[in-house]
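Suppose a colleague, Dr. K., hands you the sequence of a protein chain of 298 amino acids and asks what its three-dimensional shape might be. Before reaching for any lab equipment, you can write down a predicted structure in C-alpha cell form. Begin with the sequence itself:
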Amino acid sequence: MEYSFPHYLLSKQSVDDRALNRNVFDLLKANLPEAPLKIIEVGAGIGTMLTRLVRWGALTKADYILVDEMPQNIQMAREWIPLWAAESGLGVEQGEANQLRVFDQTRDVRIHLEQADVFDFIQKNKEPADLLIAHAFLDLLPMPESMPSLLGLTRRLAWLTVNFDGLTALEPTIDPALDEQIERLYHATMDSRTTGGDSRAGRHLFSHLQKAGADVLAAGASDWVVHSVSGKYVEDEKYFLHFILHFFEESLTGHAELDAAAFAQWLKKRRAQIERGELVYLAHQMDFLARVSGSPIA
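The predicted structure, expressed as C-alpha cells, is then:
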C-alpha cells in the first residue's frame, strides 16, 4: 500500500466528524463574534477543518489563515479546497498562488495558505485573530512552553481539538501481553520526540491553559471510534486504519524492547483484520474551548 499523509488527512474527515465534541462546538458557535471573523488555524493540514466549519454552518464571512509546515499539505489544500467547494455548490476564486475564496449568497470565506513552521509564523504574524484553531496538533508540540506564544495568535478564543489523552485500543485481542506492550511502547514514543509531544496532552491542557492566562470555557471527550458496519468501513476509513498501523510500524520498528518477528506478525494479523472488516480502533482525546484572559464572552 502507498502511504500518503494528505490522503490520510482526507480519510479521517468522517472519523473527526463523529469525534468532535458537540457541546464544546456549540459553545464555540455561541461565543463567536459577529462576522467578518479572522481565524488562524495552525497545523491545518489540507483544510478539512475549514470545510467542516462551512458544512456545519459556523462560517459565513471570514478571513481564514491556514498554516502548515508540510509543502505537500499546502499543495493538496490548494487543489482540494476548490474541488470541494465546486462539489458543494460554492463559487470558487483562485487569486495569487496561496489565496482562495469560496462563496455563495450567504457565505464568503477568503483563505490564505501559509506554508510555515508554526513558531516562525508566530514570529511574523502582525495581528491576532478572533479564533485560533489547533486540531490534532498540540500533542505534537513542547508544552507548556509553547502555549503562551500560541495564545498570542488570538485576541478572543482558542478551539483546541482532538488532543490525544493516553488511551489506544485495538480489538479483537491478538495476544494480551504483546498488545499491551505495543500500545505502551507506542505511547512512550510520543513522550520522547525531540520536537516535543505528550501522550497525555488532553488532561494536561487544563493546567497549561490556566498557567498561560486562559480560561477554559468548555472541555470534553473527542474519541476516535472506528468499526465496520456489516463488514465494511464507512467512507475511506479502511485507509485511515491502515495508516494508523503505519504509524505504529514507523514508530516501533527496530525498538530495542520489542521482538521484531513478533511485531511483524502482529502487524500482519492486524492488517488482515482490517481487510476482513474486523478491526475496531479506539483513541481517547479531548477538545477545549478557551478564552484569552480579558476577552469578552457573548
